[in-house]
Write a structure and sequence with these properties.
Elements: H1 3-10, H2 16-22, H3 36-50, H4 52-59, H5 68-81, H6 92-109, H7 114-123
Helix pairs in contact: 2-6, 3-5, 3-6
Length: 149
């Protein structure tokens, strides 16, 4: 989803920090509309780390069994966020979390008033976004209408 789409849905113009907040996960006070640029490196690293033994088995007889792209991306990640553990984590949240924390810090630093800070803290409090996961159950009156109010 693009920034313009979110602006159309919410009928608002989003500043850079507001767009950054919208791209945070729901549990971090965002809308969960993740940006591809923030997901690409962590997704690749998690996928590659979890399949290293399979890659080695498949490519053991091949002449192109080097992992230069993987090593290059590991170097990129470590230059941004610190040393990579000896045993490579296979879950994406490990690789993703440092960037999320940095984005969250930028959003928090951009809050100018007590009202903005209170709104952000309430949006990022535990269970505040649980309503987003509610399943529409028509018999209970839980459904979305496209009727104008």
């Amino acid at each position: 989803m693009l920034r313009a789409d979110i602006q159309c849905i919410t009928n608002s113009d989003l500043t850079g920090s507001q767009w950054l907040q919208a791209s945070l996960p729901v549990k971090d006070g965002g809308l969960g509309v993740r940006r591809v640029i923030s997901l690409a490196l962590p997704a690749f690293l998690a996928s590659a780390a979890s399949t290293l033994s399979l890659q080695d088995a498949i490519l053991s007889g091949s002449t192109c069994s080097d992992n230069r792209y993987f090593q290059s991306y590991l170097t990129t990640w470590s230059s941004r966020y610190g040393t990579v553990p000896e045993t490579l984590p296979t879950k994406q949240p490990f690789w993703d979390r440092p960037d999320l924390l940095a984005d969250r810090a930028i959003v928090e630093a951009s809050l100018n008033s007590p009202h903005q800070r209170a709104s952000y803290l309430s949006a990022s409090s535990p269970h505040s976004g649980d309503w987003l996961y509610a399943m529409p159950i028509t018999s209970c009156g839980l459904r979305l209408d496209d009727e104008a109010v």
